[in-house]
């Protein structure tokens, strides 16, 4: 199983390196279109290799997806925590009831001895 994982990671690495080598051209990224840049009065742009733009977009998408899923699953994690707390409370209550039951049995045994 470990070797399969390494083979998959190696294949992904080969694909990423080939994409990086094939897309080395420099591109200009701008935050706003030209018309909005003139209205805003400021220009934010950067020149990067195309493969960084591609891989950055993939990384940003993964990060957004992970955060979105973590937020979406919050209700399930909260419910699980509530159920675990309830189970602990019930276990403590059961232990207390068993201890009280054992004490009562000892007292009854003593009373039965004296009566008999």
Automatic annotation (TrEMBL):
Gene Ontology CC: one annotated term: plasma membrane
Lipopolysaccharide assembly protein A domain span: 44-94
Superkingdom: Bacteria
Record bears the keyword Cell membrane: yes
Keyword terms: Cell membrane, Coiled coil, Membrane, Transmembrane, Transmembrane helix
InterPro entries: LapA_dom
Keyword Metal-binding annotated: no
Coiled-coil residues: 71-100
Annotated transmembrane regions: 48-71
Pfam families to which the protein is assigned, alphabetical: LapA_dom
Protein name as it appears in the record: LapA family protein
Taxonomic path: Bacteria, Pseudomonadati, Pseudomonadota, Alphaproteobacteria, Rhodobacterales
């Amino acid at each position: 199983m470990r070797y399969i994982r390494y083979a998959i990671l190696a294949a992904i690495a080969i694909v990423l390196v080939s994409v990086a080598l094939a897309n080395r051209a420099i591109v200009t990224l701008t935050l706003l279109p030209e018309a909005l840049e003139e209205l805003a009065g400021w220009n934010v742009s950067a020149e990067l290799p195309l493969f960084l733009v591609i891989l950055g977009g993939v990384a940003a998408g993964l990060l957004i997806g992970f955060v979105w899923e973590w937020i979406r699953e919050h209700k399930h994690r909260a419910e699980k925590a509530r159920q675990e707390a309830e189970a602990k409370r019930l276990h403590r209550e059961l232990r207390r009831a068993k201890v009280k039951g054992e004490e009562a049995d000892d007292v009854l045994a003593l009373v039965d001895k004296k009566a008999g």
